[in-house]
Design a protein that fits this description.
This protein has helices at about 5-10, 20-30, 35-45, 50-60, 65-80, 85-100, 100-115, 120-130, 135-150, 160-170, 175-185, 190-205, 205-220, 225-235, 240-260. By secondary structure, it is an all-alpha fold. It has a domain at about 175-264: Alpha Horseshoe (Serine Threonine Protein Phosphatase 5, Tetratricopeptide repeat), CATH 1.25.40.10.
């Protein structure tokens, strides 16, 4: 199952009635079989089950079928006008597929009007506002997401990771360190969390903290170019020239393959 499908389907309470076409289609989508899910969900629509519109919209999002997504999400919003999820998912589509941060923010706000405690809508509204160069409002919404994570006992790490990025941009290293510590505690398997932990440690003059974090990031993602380059610089600065040169050589070789694509 793709990460996108997992994020979209997490927490959705519609998946019931295992013998219905709707439930079978939703289950197929949840197992990472969107093509088959579409076929079964269309059978559910033919039976008059309007819930299938939202599931189809999610399937078309995963399949990158823009026109069909727009058609189905519009129907989902008409059929579920008080439900926050269709607005959140449309916001994600505008954010990820079209980089329309202003329009995405509007959809996240509509989701929050229906569910003020929607953690992911709060988080992605904050990220959208960061992209719109509105750091004060972005921080406020990200902090609200953090409050809800505590209240709901959620393991969603992205608000902490995003706050760490925001505080790095603002040179607020103490706040950045506190945020990334929470991100790593919740999701140590995420390479970007480990990279930010190392980057912040280095900015705070702690090579002993930076080196293992960057090594962990590279172990999780062998092609993490920024992590390799920063690790090479730090190792060489600490007199570990041979090890640093090895990392730099690997960085250059990978750069030839992947080019430079920042993960931040």
């Amino acid at each position: 199952m793709t990460l996108l499908a997992t994020c979209l389907l997490a927490g959705n309470a519609l998946w019931a009635e295992p013998t219905s076409n709707f439930a079978q289609g939703a289950a197929l989508l949840g197992r990472g079989a969107p093509f088959t899910a579409v076929r079964v969900l269309r059978l559910a629509l033919a039976e008059g089950d309007s819930r299938a519109h939202f599931a189809l919209a999610q399937a078309y999002f995963v399949l990158n079928q823009h026109r069909f997504f727009r058609e189905e999400i519009a129907e989902a919003k008409r059929n579920q006008p008080s439900d926050a999820e269709p607005y959140y998912v449309e916001g994600r589509f505008l954010f990820q597929n079209e980089s329309k941060f202003d329009a995405a923010a509007t959809q996240f706000q509509k989701a929050l009007f229906r569910d003020p405690n929607h953690i992911k809508a709060l988080c992605y509204l904050g990220i959208s506002l960061m992209n719109m160069q509105e750091p004060v409002e972005a921080e406020a919404h990200l902090l609200k997401a953090v409050e809800q994570i505590a209240q709901q006992k959620s393991s969603f790490y992205l608000p902490f990771q995003t706050l760490a990025l925001l505080y790095i941009q603002q040179d607020q290293l103490e706040k950045a360190a506190a945020a990334v510590d929470r991100a790593v505690a919740l999701a140590p398997q995420v390479a970007l969390n480990q990279f930010l932990l190392g980057k912040i440690a280095w900015a705070r003059n702690s090579p002993a903290g930076a080196i293992p974090a960057l090594q962990a990031a590279i172990a999780l993602d062998d092609a993490f170019l920024e992590a390799r380059y920063l690790l090479a610089r730090i190792l060489k600065s600490q007199g570990k020239t041979a090890e640093g040169e090895r990392q730099l050589a690997q960085f250059k070789a990978l750069k030839e393959i992947y080019g430079v694509a920042s993960r931040q």
